[in-house]
Amino acid sequence: MESSGIDLTQFVHPSHVSKNLLCPITQSVLEKPVMTPCEHLFCEDALLEWLLRSDRCPVCNNLLNPEEISKPGRVIVNMLAELKRFCPHRSRGCLWTGPNEQVEKHLSSKCSHKDDLDNVEHLKDLVEQLKVENHKIKEVREGEERRTGGAKDGRSEAMAVSQ
Ligand SMILES: [Zn+2]
Ligand SMILES: [Zn+2]
Questions:
Q1: Which range of residues forms the domain containing residue 120?
Q2: Average pLDDT over residues 101-112
């Protein structure tokens, strides 16, 4: 089974996370939370998986009609949204922390792990640019040497001759 829920170690203050925001099935912080008619909260994926084997609520054993499963209220959604998280790439050196609701945005735009990749591309561009510049400088210098005709050492003399 694909694991759902967000592990407490992903949060900056795991001890401040209310137990009400943990999924009773995954024991992790609710991910894509859903609410049963008996007002118990679960990760959507975990509850769907559970319903393949049972038609009762894992917490209170009430009969569950899948059609009565809904999104939780705004307060729950907001509490989950504002929990402070680390970047999932923390182990690779990204120091970003921010609200749970901004993790996706961070990953798709500002994650320094991604920046590393961008920097490599940027460096490649720079190297290409430098090659061009280097070539230009060489041309200018050679032109200069040809004009002055003054070979200052053997090497540039040879270059001037070979032109
Ligand atoms: Zn229940
Ligand atoms: Zn990051």
A1: 115-162
A2: 92
